[in-house]
Amino acid sequence: MRRFIIAxxxxxxxxAVVVYLERRPTSKVxxxxxxxxxxxxxxxxxxxxxxxxxxxxxxxRIVSLTLSTDEILLEICPKSRIAALHEIxxxxxxxxxxxxxxxxxxxxxxxxxxxxxxxxxxxxxxxYSRAEALKLLAASGxxxxxxxxxxxxxxxxxxxREIGYAVGEESGADGLVKKMEADLKQLAPLAAEAxxxxxxxSQGGASAAKNTVFDDCVRLAGGxxxxxxxxxxxxxxxxxxxxxxxNPDFIVVGARPGEEAAVKRKLLENPALAQTKAAKLNHIxxxxxxxxxxxxxxIVKCVQALxxxxxxxx
Amino acid sequence: xxxxxxxxxWFFGCAGIGLALVVVIGxxxxxxxxxxxxxxxxxxxxxxxxxxGTLDGISQPDHTIVWLLRxxxxxxxxxxxxxxxxxGAQMQGLFQNPLASPDIIGTSSGGALGAVTAIALGLASKSxxxxxxxxxxxxxxxxxxxxxxxxxxxxxxxxxxxxxxxAVNSLMGAATSFVITLHSxxxxxxxxxxxxxxxxxxxRTWDHVAILTPCFLIGLGLAVFFAKDLNLxxxxxxxxxxxxxxxxxxxxxxxxxxxxLTGGAVAVSGLVGFVGLIIPHVVRLLVGPDHRVLIPACxxxxxxxxxxxDLFARTVTAPTEIRLGILTAALGAxxxxxxxxxxxxxxxxx
Lengths: 314, 350
Prior knowledge:
By secondary structure, chain A is of the alpha/beta class. Chain A contains 15 helices and twelve strands. In chain A, helix 3 (98-102) links the parallel strand 5 and strand 6. Chain B is globular and about 65 Å long.
């Protein structure tokens, strides 16, 4: 009994310490939220929790530490205002903007020391950045934007507009969004066609269900996301037996250029998957991870690739 | 002054100077160029509370890099190395086993579960404090559970403590793997977890120093206060009891102190293994087995060791960094095997 009381008291003290420490002034890190439109600068962004961040002047030394913001900034922002991009933008395995990025002089990892040396006046960071790294970046005095995970194409469009607003390039951002919408509009006739049932399936058995960008992509490509239809959300792991039971019309799997045949072969080594309608009709579709996993405007290429695969006669 | 005492003073003198030196070198080296003069001026200004020197002519980025990035990192390495080394010395004394380390009572695996949970739930990106607090809570609860399970009728046999620690470590490991599996699809979460479990000191802030300092001071204080009792426990428990040591109480306090030191270290640095195993052995060769000297000597040496190891970790393959836990394991595992073979030879197995 005494030990139980001690344990409870200990946890209580720990909780009190956390609450106390949490009430200290926080660093200037803000998550994207509803925009307050103002002309010119300073501009104010409001986070989901109601806190605000002021961008005092039009940023001229922008540092981007995420691939998605690298790709978006290269489209909408004059290169002279970008102080550095993340070095992953040079990696052809992941990046959709390798050539454009190669023309930029500075690439950095998410190393606070190297970022601080660049004297940025605006920093874009990933949603999963550790809090201590964000605090160190905020020590530069520059506003630090942390964008939350993107789970829809509308979310991606909103993010592009927010980036445009933050850097003072609303027209560029608006133009990029309009181009996305125009490209997607060309696929609108697919809505009238018969919709095949599609299942995303990774080599580890993970799928993409409701509230994912892939779900939106399948819908816009004129298909039905089977995992979402079954009521699943996020990225559930599905056993091969369940896949056989669901019997999708198409199975979509990620494969790097040049590895498509090997990935398909590996998938079909599983006897359950080999018995599905998708396998028998040779409807195993591979998608380049660069477009399958992107959360920038390049997601339109994923929709277009899916549409071409699901409706080849369109 | 006796020869032995003179050696000890020499040791502490050299270790102290060595520590000061590696601290300054550690702060001077990083992924960007900052001149040594700038480093010294910034340190002198802040350590003197602004009385000595000025920051005139020092750019804001350089000042931020030296005082807000590198100094907390080096101080965290100092405190983690010292904590793990002291906890290791205590464990080896308490268990009377040269292969004992702070992980025996499950603090590392419990801390890992807490930290992995914080990362998987996204708490680690919400606030600096969630991860270390949850890691510390996990470490403490694990140590407490091991102790509670191994204690029967007010006594805690060492063999039972070891076996219980083994079982609880396995359980925590399974739970950690389960959490990782649940979030394996999100590569950014998986990579954060893997990096944390390999140990590292990147992006340490003054908040981490603030979290670890009280744990270290209390843990070290308890270790030093009960060093004489630990010497007596080395004889055996019955002899210690007959000489006036309250054996069970001292064991409880020493275990709690070691758990506090290890839990605090794991909370801010991830899993950095073998420090608690190697350092006490090396120091024992230099200053002898008396814990009144061994404990503070381990603190100094552990601090120097981890600062130097961290320096290697971030310079050997610059601009990328080797994870700290990889380096300490690369150094510690051969040493551990050496100890194992030596022990088996001594008891005649080889």
